């Protein structure tokens, strides 16, 4: 494996969490190492006994030991019981949570370049350990001191940001406040500059209602809140399009006009990106003091242990974690 060097010495590897061990995390971590060896240095945090039986791995004591490893480097974390593919076990819940916190701590200490997280099962964590967070994004915000965070889904053709995430559709109109939408747009704008290299980002903003309200005939949210908010942000110098009808924002010629799209709710953002690149999309958490990415899929219990899992999204997530981590590191050292 090639050693990557920066202005302050060797670049640390990316910390990859095992995620839910009963899911496909162990398998795709192994496949990702085979695909990325010599390109993106990373190490896995988890129980080595949860890896597929024939996998060669290198146990490490510290993240730097992963640099130059020729088999999958694993920072051991004891789970105390074997995995059963496809069956979440309550006793695994707390170690899954602890692994995430450990990855964040190593990254904040500078021992890891960035965090990449394999999928978790939120219900399993709630049932087994009383996990109080809707998902990774909210837990990472908590670990970062309740940072204002935003979830971005990214692929080569599209970047989307849902302004509201893991809530019922019926709750969106009340949760989509002026303050919330302002924070999402500003966080997206700052991340496009800092992490993605766009000096003057162009952001498209969807309307909430069909046809972006069509002049108030299909809803007043655009007239009452979204349009005035965008006008105010434009006076600050933000380059914003919208509010736009969501059904005409995502064809190829429309996508060429912006660097990211802010959508009003979960499915409005995720349906287009998963249609465009179902296997390759990456989840990026914006607004954290460290870089975090994740594959854009779940635990896939139905194929866990079968050897059929597609590692494309994790491979892309690790590449992006490395790229964004290097950008942060170069900026901090400049």
TrEMBL record:
It is an enzyme of class 1 (oxidoreductase). Coiled coil: none annotated. GO terms for cellular component: cytoplasm. Binds 1 divalent metal cation per subunit. Can use ions such as Zn(2+), Mg(2+) or Co(2+). SUPFAM superfamilies: Isocitrate/Isopropylmalate dehydrogenase-like (SSF53659). The keyword NADP applies. Its EC number is 1.1.1.262. InterPro entries: PdxA (IPR037510), PdxA_fam (IPR005255). It catalyses: 4-(phosphooxy)-L-threonine + NAD(+) = 3-amino-2-oxopropyl phosphate + CO2 + NADH. Keywords: Cobalt, Cytoplasm, Magnesium, Metal-binding, NAD, NADP, Oxidoreductase, Pyridoxine biosynthesis, Zinc. Pathway: Cofactor biosynthesis; pyridoxine 5'-phosphate biosynthesis; pyridoxine 5'-phosphate from D-erythrose 4-phosphate: step 4/5. A divalent metal cation binds at residues 166, 211, 266. It is found in: Cytoplasm. Its cofactor is Zn(2+); Mg(2+); Co(2+). Catalyzes the NAD(P)-dependent oxidation of 4-(phosphooxy)-L-threonine (HTP) into 2-amino-3-oxo-4-(phosphooxy)butyric acid which spontaneously decarboxylates to form 3-amino-2-oxopropyl phosphate (AHAP). NCBIfam families: pdxA, PRK05312.1. This is 4-hydroxythreonine-4-phosphate dehydrogenase. It comes from Aliiroseovarius halocynthiae. The lineage of its organism: Bacteria, Pseudomonadati, Pseudomonadota, Alphaproteobacteria, Rhodobacterales. The gene is pdxA.
């Amino acid at each position: 494996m090639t050693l990557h060097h920066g202005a302050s010495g060797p670049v640390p590897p990316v910390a990859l969490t095992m995620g839910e061990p009963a899911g496909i995390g162990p398998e795709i971590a192994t496949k990702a190492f085979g695909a990325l060896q010599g390109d993106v240095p990373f190490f896995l945090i988890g129980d080595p006994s949860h890896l597929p039986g024939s996998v060669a791995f290198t146990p490490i004591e510290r993240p730097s030991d992963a640099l130059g490893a020729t088999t999958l480097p694993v920072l051991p974390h004891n789970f105390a019981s074997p995995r059963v593919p496809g069956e979440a076990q309550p006793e695994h819940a707390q170690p899954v949570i602890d692994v995430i916190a450990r990855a964040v701590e190593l990254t904040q200490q500078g021992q890891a370049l960035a965090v990449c997280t394999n999928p978790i099962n939120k219900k399993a964590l709630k049932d087994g350990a009383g996990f109080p967070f809707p998902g990774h994004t909210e837990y990472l915000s908590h670990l970062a001191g309740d940072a204002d965070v935003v979830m971005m889904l990214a692929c080569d053709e599209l970047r989307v940001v849902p302004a509201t995430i893991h809530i019922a559709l019926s709750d969106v109109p009340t949760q989509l406040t002026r303050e919330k939408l302002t924070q999402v747009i500003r966080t997206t704008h700052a991340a496009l500059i800092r992490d993605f290299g766009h000096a003057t980002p162009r952001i498209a903003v969807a309307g909430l209602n069909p046809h972006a309200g069509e002049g108030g005939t299909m809803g007043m949210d655009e007239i009452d809140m979204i349009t005035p908010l965008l006008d105010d942000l434009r006076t600050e110098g933000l380059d914003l399009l919208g509010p736009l009808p969501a059904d005409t924002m995502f064809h190829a010629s429309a996508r060429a006009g912006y660097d990211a799209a802010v959508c009003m709710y979960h499915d409005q953002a995720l349906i287009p990106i998963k249609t465009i690149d179902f296997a390759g999309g990456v989840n990026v958490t914006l607004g954290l003091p460290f870089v975090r990415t994740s594959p854009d899929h779940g635990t896939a219990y139905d194929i866990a242990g079968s050897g059929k899992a597609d590692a494309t999204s994790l491979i892309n997530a690790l590449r992006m974690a490395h790229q964004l981590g290097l950008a942060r590191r170069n900026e901090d050292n400049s």
